Amino acid sequence: MKIASMIIGILGAVLGIILGITWMSDYFSMQQQINAAGAIAKSLSNSLLQAQMAELSKLYIASFVLTIGGVIAVVATIMINKLKEKTAYVLIAVPVIAAILAPKSLVFTFLMPVAAIMIFVKRKSL
Description:
By secondary structure, the protein is mainly alpha-helical. Helices cover 90% and strands 0% of the residues. The termini are close together.
């Protein structure tokens, strides 16, 4: 069970890292257009465009959470013997924080909470 939870946790974390890096690179490649759209939204007082800009800002922050949290989750999962339940808390915290900012991220990070549940079930059954 420990090996399975490690594999699932690492897979979920790596998928989160890939998603975070993809969102980050998309944001940086479109930086000029994003800044122009933000200026237009402010000048026109268009609430729909401003809401979309706010969502884009949350995606940008979520990309950092996914990338940095994913790396921490990989390290914590590899060190599962020493960290024990702390690994499960990390595997739950990263996708929850990312989902608060961008619910779309759960498509890639749903494996991390599954691995955390497996760790808790294993710990309780011993």
